[in-house]
What does this fold into?
Amino acid sequence: GAVVSQHPSWVICKSGTSVKIECRSLDFQATTMFWYRQFPKQSLMLMATSNEGSKATYEQGVEKDKFLINHASLTLSTLTVTSAHPEDSSFYICSATGGVNYNEQFFGPGTRLTVL
Amino acid sequence: GENVEQHPSTLSVQEGDSAVIKCTYSDSASNYFPWYKQELGKRPQLIIDIRSNVGEKKDQRIAVTLNKTAKHFSLHITETQPEDSAVYFCAESAGTALIFGKGTTLSVSS
It folds into this structure.
């Protein structure tokens, strides 16, 4: 149980285009989903927290107009990187909570974004 | 704000030796302390966690200790094996969001 999927697993796009990443909880209802980015050889940095049906809460320094987060249902959250630039290239990972252990986060497999 | 310091950043041990990674946190409201193992290009995997009402927890070769007074917690891996080689992250939470340490790259040589 407690499986989180992410799609796509990798994407390459041209500078200036937008990319959407989906995060799904497959066998539980995720009351809260989180989006992280991870640069090579660095730690996971929390970008935003989203609760179903409400606006996401962004961490300091994360542009909400650039990283659009939608959490329309208890099993799906999307992250859209708008007008992507090479510096946005990173590993984006989502996680979800909602199980019996409300603290425990279940991570998706990540999406490798490369912006040319 | 919340901060988690993790040491060491790299750790090399011989197979069979023990490995210890330490983390210090600043938020006195923190009540959940998980440890994750991450292999290159993969998702973090929860290997053990501990809550603030417990001082120690063990699962086979892995143990975690928590000192709430000193605000630090440690991961102990005994009888290390080459497959234990990975990056390990500590994290802490006072609610739902996790704050991660910078990670420790563990290398176990046979």
